[in-house]
Write a structure and sequence with these properties.
Structural class: alpha+beta
Strand order of the largest sheet: 1-5-6-11-10-9-7-8
Strand content: 15-25%
Largest sheet: 8 strands, mixed
Bound molecules: histidyl-adenosine monophosphate
Shape: elongated
Distance between the termini: 50 Å
Length: 423
C-alpha cells in the first residue's frame, strides 16, 4: 500500500500555497507597521519547558504533546505552541538587555495530538505576537488592535472579539473558592473532565462545551465578581483603550483560556461561519510565565491565530484574492535546431527578472500553445527554423490575438519593455 501522510496533517500544493503567501505577506506588513520583529525558535524543545510553561493540568500537556526521547535519552517535545519558547528565548538570549518592551512575532507549524476534524489539525500553523517587558493596559490594547487591524485589512467581517480578565493568583484563589462552593453539591452531575477539573482547575469548568456543564454553571460566580482592585483597574483601562481603537469587543466573563499561564487580560476572536472550531485567535497576558521558566519577573502579553482557520474564514467570506498569472511569457521552440537559441533567449529574459517559461518536454506547437493558454501568459515567443533563418522571433500577444516578428537582436529588450509597461 502507498504510504500516506499522517492523520491531521496536510500537503499544501500549488494552487493553495498562493493563499498562504498572501496571508503571510499581509501579516508581515501589519507587523512591520506596528513595529514587531520576527523571532524563530526551534520546532522542538525540552519537554519540561511546556510542562512548566503551559501547565501540567492543561489538556495540551496531559494529552496532546508529541513527546519523544532523543538518542541521548533527553525528553523532547514538538512545540504545541510558541509562547513558552519565546519566553525561554527572552531569558536565554538576554533580550531583557534590549530596549523594553520587546515586540516579537512568529509564524510556523505547531503540533498537538488532537482528534482531527474540520479546522483542527495535528500539525497546524500559527501566527502569533508576544510583547515582553511592559505591564500597562496600553500594551494589551495594542496587541488586540493589531489582530483587529489585520482582520480588517483582510476584509473579514462578522468577527466576535471576546475579552475577559482572569485576574492574578490572588484574586483567582478567591474565585476558585467561590466556584467550588457554588458547584460543591453538583459535582457528580458534571462531565467526567469537569469532575477532574473541580480540584485541579475549576475555572475551566466555566468554558466546558458540554451543555449540562453549561447549565450547571449558569449563575456561577465569574472572574468579574472577584477581581482585586489592581486587576479590575487594569481591565477597565484595557476596555477604554479598545473602544478608543475602534475594536468592537464583547466582555465575556466566562472566557477562560485553556493554558495555565494567563493573568489579567484574556481574549479570543471567533468567526461562527467556519464551524465548530470557530476560534481564529486566542491570547492574553502572562505576567508570571517568564519567572515560571527561570527568568526574572517580566510581564508579557500576546496572542496566536490559526492560519488554517483564518484561511477558511477568508474562503467562506470570499475574500481571497484572484489568482494572478505566474508567467509573463512562454518561449516556444519548434524543432531541435531552434531549441538551443530558444533556451538562451529564455535565460536572458530570466536574467532580466522576467518570469518566463519554456516547454521542457519537446512537445509540438499545438500542445505548447495550449499550455501557454492554460497558464494565462500574455505572450507566446515562437522560434522555428524559418524564424532562425530570418533572425527573428515571432511574438504573439495571446490576449489581443496579434502577432509580429521582432529581430532576434532586440527581442529581449522588446519583451522587457512590454513587461515593464505591464502589457
Ligand atoms: P491557543 O488558543 O491554544 O493559544 O491557540 C491559538 C489559536 O491556534 C487558536 O485560536 C486556533 O485558531 C489555533 N489552533 C489551536 N489548535 C489548533 C489545531 N489543533 N488546529 C488548528 N488550529 C489550531 C496558544 O497557542 C497561545 N500560545 C496563544 C498566546 C500567545 N497566548 C499568549 N500569547
Amino acid at each position: 500500500m502507498a504510504i500516506q501522510r499522517p492523520k491531521g496533517t496536510q500537503d499544501l500544493l500549488p494552487g493553495t500555497i498562493e493563499q498562504w503567501h498572501y496571508l503571510e505577506e499581509t501579516i508581515r506588513s501589519v507587523c512591520r507597521e506596528f513595529g514587531y520583529e520576527e523571532i524563530r525558535t526551534p520546532m522542538f524543545e525540552a519537554t519540561e519547558l511546556f510542562q512548566r510553561g503551559v501547565g501540567q493540568t492543561t489538556d495540551i500537556v496531559k494529552k496532546e504533546m508529541y513527546t519523544f526521547l532523543d538518542k541521548g535519552d533527553r525528553s523532547m517535545t514538538l512545540r504545541p505552541e510558541m509562547t513558552a519558547s519565546v519566553c525561554r528565548a527572552y531569558v536565554e538570549d538576554k533580550l531583557h538587555g534590549q530596549p523594553q518592551p520587546v515586540k516579537l512575532y512568529y509564524m510556523g507549524p505547531m503540533f498537538r495530538y488532537e482528534r482531527p476534524q474540520s479546522g483542527r489539525y495535528r500539525q497546524f500553523h500559527q501566527f502569533g505576537v508576544e510583547v515582553l517587558g511592559a505591564d500597562q493596559p496600553l500594551v494589551d490594547a495594542e496587541v488586540i488592535s493589531l489582530v483587529w487591524n489585520l482582520y480588517k485589512r483582510l476584509g473579514l467581517v462578522g468577527l466576535e472579539v471576546h475579552v475577559n480578565s482572569v485576574g492574578c493568583p490572588t484574586c483567582r484563589a478567591e474565585h476558585r473558592k467561590q466556584l467550588q462552593e457554588f458547584l460543591d453539591t453538583r459535582q457528580n452531575e458534571l462531565c467526567s473532565d469537569c469532575q477532574e477539573r473541580f480540584e485541579r482547575n475549576p475555572l475551566r469548568i466555566l468554558d466546558c462545551k458540554n451543555t449540562s456543564c453549561q447549565t450547571l454553571t449558569t449563575g456561577a460566580p465569574t472572574t468579574k465578581d472577584t477581581l482585586c482592585e489592581e486587576c479590575s483597574t487594569h481591565f477597565e483601562g484595557v476596555l477604554t483603550l479598545l473602544s478608543a481603537a475602534g475594536v468592537a469587543y464583547r466582555v465575556n466573563p466566562r472566557l477562560v483560556r485553556g493554558l495555565d499561564y494567563y493573568t489579567k487580560t484574556a481574549f479570543e476572536v471567533m468567526v461562527e461561519e467556519i464551524g465548530a472550531q470557530s476560534a481564529i485567535c486566542g491570547g492574553g497576558r502572562y505576567d508570571k510565565l517568564v519567572e515560571e521558566i527561570g527568568g526574572s519577573p517580566t510581564p508579557g502579553i500576546g496572542f496566536a491565530m490559526g492560519i488554517e482557520r483564518v484561511l477558511a474564514a477568508l474562503q467562506v467570506q470570499n475574500k481571497l484574492p484572484q489568482e494572478k498569472p505566474k508567467l509573463f511569457a512562454m518561449v516556444i521552440p519548434l524543432g531541435e535546431k531552434a531549441q538551443n537559441k530558444a533556451f538562451s533567449i529564455l535565460c536572458e529574459l530570466r536574467n532580466q527578472g522576467i518570469p518566463v517559461g519554456m516547454d521542457l518536454l519537446s512537445r509540438g506547437l499545438k500542445a505548447q500553445l495550449k499550455a501557454a493558454d492554460r497558464q494565462h501568459v500574455r505572450y507566446a515567443l515562437m522560434l522555428g527554423e524559418a524564424e532562425l533563418e530570418k533572425n527573428v522571433l515571432l511574438v504573439r500577444d495571446l490576449t489581443l490575438g496579434e502577432q509580429n516578428e521582432v529581430p532576434l537582436a532586440s527581442a529581449v529588450e522588446e519583451i522587457n519593455k512590454k513587461y515593464q509597461r505591464g502589457v
